[in-house]
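Researcher: We're reviewing a set of sequences before deciding which ones to prioritize for further study. For each one, I'd like a predicted 3D structure that I can look through quickly. This is Trehalose operon repressor. If possible, include the structure in token form so it fits the rest of the review sheet.
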Amino acid sequence: MKNKFIKIKEELGELIRNGQMEAGSLLPSENDLAERYSASRETIRKALNLLSEEGYIHKVQGKGSIVLDVSKFDFPISGLVSFKEISKKMGHRAKTFVEEFEKISPTAETKKKMRLESNEAVWKIYRVREIDGEKIILDKDLLVEKYAPELTKKICQDSIYEYLEGELGLTISFAKKEITMEIPTEEDRRYLDLEGFQYIVVVKNFVYLDDASMFQYTESRHRPDKFRFVDFARRK
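Model: Here's the predicted structure for Trehalose operon repressor, in token form for your review sheet.
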């Protein structure tokens, strides 16, 4: 049987997701919620803490809890961040599934794309990102094997960038990005929940280390209804 604060959290989360509590509005006070759910204020606080950790609300001291927009997720265009770093704001709402993980010999197309001069091995990694129970991102990675010869499926499920930088001491420096709208492939439809969607957003990343060596090519294939691609521009 679920704890009462978890049930309250789930009910409030559902109200936020379906728009009955609008983004930018204030949640009822702790006293009002305690009365509504016949619960103690301590139970309400536990529920609100979980909602805050999972990105549903933002607690402001002296003001209350502000409902956040959970219908879309902000993905930075110019930034170079891992999904794990983004998903920390979502708490337990986000999950990663490694669908394919193998070491392959590069095709002629891969060699050209990744500027490989030899047949050095490449890791092929497919990861599906699930948010709020829906599979809405397919990340297709190619990573030059010599930079991470001991890579594992478990590392891929957690964070490749965290492993490369934290464990191997590599410096991921910059990336060239291309963003297009494409018709979903059979592969997209096999891995993602795309019923009713005729297009997907594809972000292609060509990622380099600080010595300008390209070590990774990624196609991040997004269902279009869940994301805002954001940037900050300054006129010089």
